[in-house]
UniProtKB/TrEMBL annotation:
Classification via InterPro entries: CruF-like
Transmembrane domains' residue ranges: 25-43, 49-68, 75-95, 115-135, 147-165, 177-196, 208-226
Entry keyword Membrane: yes
Protein name per its UniProtKB record: Carotene biosynthesis protein
Keyword hit for Nucleotide-binding: no
Keywords: Membrane, Transmembrane, Transmembrane helix
Length: 227
């Protein structure tokens, strides 16, 4: 029997091999950053050194995700911009009114703020919305059900994230109590953004996404268990 890969053009095989190497490098870099941060935050006597790299880690993760997005069309970039803006201004409304997520204020860890909200929050909403949306595409179900599944994935990640965020001054809740409204608000906003994600016409496939979501989940779940 002839090896079917031998029937492929040599250029195709080289390109596929190069793509796999790029993916492994990206996964290795992200794993290094997250393991270093995990060890530093969990066991260091002075976690402030590691906290200063949180915005950089977020930008690195989003940058690598975007690098593996096939055919970054104007529609894709418009999705990115709209998602970041919606995510940011939803948080502005949340901080000012307390009606969406409960009463909370942002700390210093996420970096530079505008309107009392870190600019990185918009980037974070993009990373989470994009990742959950891509993961939900693996399911052979209608788009609205995919949006619901993706929103639930985000709420599940937030459950693991909240204890870590409070401990390391990402944000602070009134009376140090995480309200149920927070998770309801996360689900509602996530669902709206997922419906939008499904409606925008771009290739919804990214080989780095499953690794990023699992890495984030394990990172925050592991830290929350140790705090």
């Amino acid at each position: 029997m002839t090896d079917p890969t031998q029937q492929l053009p040599a250029a195709t095989l080289v390109t596929a091999d190069a793509h796999r190497r790029r993916l492994r490098w990206a996964q290795g870099v992200l794993l290094l950053f997250h393991v270093t941060g995990f060890v530093g935050l969990a066991f260091s006597q002075d976690p402030s050194f590691y906290l200063q790299f949180v915005p950089l880690n977020l930008l690195l993760t989003v940058g690598l995700l975007l690098a593996f997005q096939p055919r970054r069309t104007p529609a894709f970039w418009s999705f990115c911009v709209v998602t970041m803006l919606v995510g940011f201004f939803v948080e502005v409304a949340g901080v000012r009114t307390g009606l969406l997520f409960g009463q909370y204020t942002y700390g210093a860890t996420l970096g530079l703020k505008w309107l009392n909200v870190p600019l990185m929050i918009g980037v974070n909403w993009l990373m989470l919305t994009y990742s959950a949306g891509i993961l939900a595409r693996y399911l052979p179900i209608p788009d609205f059900l995919r949006a619901v599944v993706a929103a639930l994935l985000l709420v599940g990640l937030d459950v693991c994230l909240e204890p870590v965020a409070v401990r390391f001054d990402f944000w602070r809740w009134q009376y140090d109590v995480i309200p149920l409204l927070n998770f309801k608000g996360w689900f509602a906003v996530s669902l709206i953004l997922q419906v939008y994600f499904n409606r925008v016409d771009f290739i919804k496939r990214n080989p780095l996404v499953p690794f990023v979501y699992l890495l984030q989940l394990l990172f925050f779940f592991g830290l929350s268990m140790l705090l």
